[in-house]
User: Which sequence fits this backbone?
């Protein structure tokens, strides 16, 4: 059977218009498009649900071991159960939720291996940020850093220790943002959300968050004054001292057995 290779009427129109304009048809189309505005991608319902649950974990509103009933969440968020399941899959891939037979989905407990891994990555990113500020002229948002300290101060004054922890996480996210990488920012925020699960296992949040809030202020002062070598040393000691209590808390939390 003979195949019809004749251009359609629409194709003939485009080619004739292009020839009349002195160019090819694809070039003609390209010249007609630059004025179109870029459209920001809209998040799906599952992405919005995942974002909300993630935010609740980041702010310490969902504790490790908290059950997340699928039907109740679907009703509260006014979405389908399939949407909730999709959000669950996303957050399980981010190590924030866990599924157990007969228990369903719960907020995940960290293990000692998780804590060690998180702090190793914190050192990699945060110390690199200080190095880039010092050596490569990376820009640190001093205003955002001061705002995180101020938020911590206000929370300390009202003994809102979980909020002090949230301000702490935001302080270090600002530091990493000086690297100037959107991917690093997104990764670090996910890492800090996971670390919040370790913070929530600490039995004395006042002592823990209060002491590190003070050290955040000292670190900011070193960075503000351009004493980058001292800031790097202070941050190295800071991360070392912070890891120990979180490891001990996770070991004593009653969650999954920590890896040795």
Assistant:
């Amino acid at each position: 059977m003979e195949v019809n290779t004749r251009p359609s009427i629409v194709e003939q129109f485009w080619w004739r218009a292009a020839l009349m304009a002195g160019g090819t048809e694809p070039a003609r189309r390209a010249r007609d498009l630059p004025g179109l505005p870029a459209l920001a991608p809209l998040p799906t319902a599952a992405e919005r649900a995942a974002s909300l649950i993630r935010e609740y974990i980041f702010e310490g509103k969902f504790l490790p071991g908290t059950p997340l009933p699928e039907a109740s969440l679907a009703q509260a968020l006014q979405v389908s159960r399939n949407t909730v399941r999709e959000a669950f899959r996303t957050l399980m891939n981010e190590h924030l939720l866990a599924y157990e037979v007969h228990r369903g989905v719960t907020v995940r407990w960290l293990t000692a291996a998780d804590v060690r891994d998180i702090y190793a990555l914190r050192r990699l990113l945060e110390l690199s940020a200080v190095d880039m500020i010092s050596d490569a002229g990376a820009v640190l948002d001093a205003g955002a850093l001061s705002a995180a300290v101020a938020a911590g101060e206000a929370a300390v004054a009202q003994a809102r220790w979980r909020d002090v922890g949230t301000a702490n996480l935001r302080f270090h996210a600002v530091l990493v943002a000086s690297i100037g990488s959107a991917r690093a920012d997104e990764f670090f925020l996910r890492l800090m959300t996971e670390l919040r699960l370790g913070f929530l296992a600490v039995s004395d949040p006042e002592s823990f968050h209060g002491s590190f809030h003070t050290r955040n202020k000292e670190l900011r002062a070193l960075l503000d004054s351009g004493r980058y070598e001292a800031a790097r040393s202070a941050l190295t000691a800071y991360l070392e001292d912070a890891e120990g209590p979180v490891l001990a808390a996770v070991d004593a939390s009653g969650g999954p057995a920590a890896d040795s």
